[in-house]
Design a protein that fits this description.
heterodimer; A: 271 residues; alpha/beta; Rossmann fold; six-stranded mixed beta sheet; B: 275 residues; mainly alpha; MetI-like fold; 0% strand; flat
């Protein structure tokens, strides 16, 4: 159940890869080596988590996949194309903060990606309506971000990422700042969305529990520079729900993953 | 005239009693001060050419209204032209600097030099080289444009890093990034700069008028003050001064109101405590 899964999935092979990283490193101008060398294959429609301590380069990896910044060396491919080739694939990105424009209403915030591609307003509004329905915020289209709770802002952010109907959804610790109840609800809603829409999701988190609950595959990273420490496939019957969250299986997997994560924190007492 | 943008609603302004006090107390102080002034003039029989009583100043204001109102209009026109030039010039220059670092490095020091050189020292030179009305407007512009420039620059550079990343992710053009991200994000800063510039353009106009007036021309309020001084018409000096202060207060109030109306839906500075 939690055996390290090194080989690519035989069913899909190379054709089904949504994201492929080979020997990717990132050294910042300050000389800090943040990542790598880092190899990663993500199948189309897969939900994976990058799990690790703060500063282990998991956010850096995500930003490279999104094309926000170039790797120092190595290749980043999204849908079999180099990530620099813009417009050939679509990516939705959810940041740790909701990252909403405070001067714009929920509707305008979610419409932004479509507006930037010059989509006609009528067509865009239909898709914004769908996206808001998907995250359960249809009644708040005219609200401003400051009028919403933290969880609702995150839902707006999610709706904005979904509105372009992207192939790949990148999420950078999106629920880290939320309270536990809200986080559980958003976890469940995200899983429901993923089951319905079958997007490829790469989810960055430092929560073992969240990563095991959500993903098909958990990749544990080690810090400075960020590398893959170990990898776990979470094979449990779908759909997952609250029963899974309270099951002995879940607790067992979490313990195994926690143990794998522990070495990453060694020598980081001050961090 | 305060140079700092004052928050339009400090925490103390919410709640009923403090708000009433904030309006009532200055009025009480004003009335008491005027009363004391009036009483002192009467008690010590001070002559109007030494210090006019408040009532006399008010009478002069009414009696000289034809002359003074015309001068007020002249000064306000100059102020408005200088302010418009400062607003447009400051914002445009900041946008230009934001697009090109090289341009910013080349020109910014000169903007600073223009700012730190006292305008009263530049005014006589400008009056030599430029037609008088132009020189006066240019003076108002020189004093007022820098706060707009520096505030707008600050605002354009204060864009949320992740939001900028989002625009990059969706392939936004530089123009789209400017229009939908940088300008709205900079708006509170720009409005703060404009509020400072409003008061400063009045100062610039007055300084230039005084410089021009001593050269024997002009009809603005500052010129009236200088002229009345030569003629020892002290009540009119005070009346003109009163009008200048009133003009400054109105300009500041108008700009603060505009700022509040524009930002009230979203920006912290325009939100009450209760929201």
């Amino acid at each position: 159940m939690s055996a390290p899964a090194a080989s690519p999935d035989l069913k899909t092979g190379m054709a089904g890869l949504a994201v492929r990283l080979r020997g990717v490193t990132k050294i910042y101008d300050s000389g800090v080596s943040a990542l790598g060398p880092f190899d990663l294959d993500v199948r189309r429609g897969e939900f994976i988590s990058l799990l690790g301590p703060s500063g282990c380069g998991k956010s850096t990896a995500l930003r490279l996949i999104a094309g926000l910044g170039a790797p120092t060396s190595g290749a980043v491919e999204v849908s079999h194309r180099p990530v620099e080739a813009k417009g050939t694939h679509s990516i939705g990105f959810v940041f740790q903060d909701p990252t909403l424009m405070p001067w714009a209403s929920v509707l305008e915030n979610v419409r932004l990606p479509l507006k930037l591609t010059h989509m006609p307003v009528a067509e865009a509004d239909v898709r914004v309506g769908e996206a808001l329905t998907q995250v359960g915020l249809s009644d708040f289209a005219e609200s401003y971000p400051r009028e919403l709770s933290g969880g609702m802002k995150m839902r707006v952010s999610l709706a904005r990422a979904l509105v372009t109907d992207p192939d790949i959804l990148l999420m950078d610790e999106p629920f880290a700042a939320l309270d536990e109840i809200t986080r559980f609800r958003l976890n469940n809603d995200l899983l429901a969305l993923w089951r319905n829409l079958r997007k490829t999701v790469i989810f960055v988190t430092h929560s073992v529990f969240e990563s095991v609950y959500l993903s098909q595959r958990v990749i544990v990273m080690t810090a400075r520079p960020g590398r893959i420490g170990s990898e776990f496939r979470i094979d449990v019957p779908e759909p997952r729900g609250e029963e899974f969250r309270t099951s002995a299986d879940y607790a067992g997997i979490c313990r195994t993953v926690s143990n794998a994560l522990a070495p990453s924190y060694q020598g980081m007492a001050g961090a | 005239m305060s140079l700092e943008p004052t928050p339009s609603s400090s925490p103390a302004s919410s709640g009923h009693a403090p708000r009433v006090l904030r309006i009532l107390l200055p009025i009480i102080v004003l009335t008491a001060g005027m009363g004391l002034w009036e009483f002192a003039i009467w008690r010590y029989q001070i002559q109007p050419y030494v210090l006019p009583a408040p009532t006399l100043i008010f009478k002069t204001l009414v009696a000289d209204w034809p002359v003074l109102s015309e001068s007020l209009l002249t000064t306000l026109t100059t102020t408005l032209e200088g302010f418009a030039a400062a607003a447009i010039g400051g914002i445009a220059l900041a946008l230009l600097f934001n697009q090109s670092k090289l341009l910013e490095y080349s020109l910014f020091p000169y903007a600073v030099i223009l700012q730190v050189t006292p305008v009263i020292a530049i005014a006589p030179l400008l009056l030599i080289y430029l037609p008088q009305q132009t020189a006066v407007v240019v003076c108002a512009w020189i004093v007022a444009f820098f706060p707009v420039l520096s505030n707008t620059t600050l605002g354009l550079n204060s864009v949320d890093r992740n939001l900028a990343g989002l625009f990059q992710l969706y392939g936004a053009s530089p123009l789209q990034t400017l229009r939908y991200l940088k300008l709205p994000a900079a708006l509170p800063f720009i409005l703060g700069g404009l509020r400072i510039a409003g008061g400063l353009s009045l100062i610039g106009a007055v300084v230039a008028e005084i410089a021009a007036g001593s050269a024997g021309a002009g009809s603005g309020l500052a010129y009236r003050i200088a002229e009345s001084g030569y003629r020892l018409n002290i009540p009119r000096m005070f009346a003109a001064l009163l009008l200048l202060s009133a003009a400054g207060i109105v300009i500041y109030g108008l700009l603060a109101l505009i700022s509040h109306l524009v930002l009230r839906r979203w920006h912290e500075s325009a939100l009450g405590k209760e929201s």
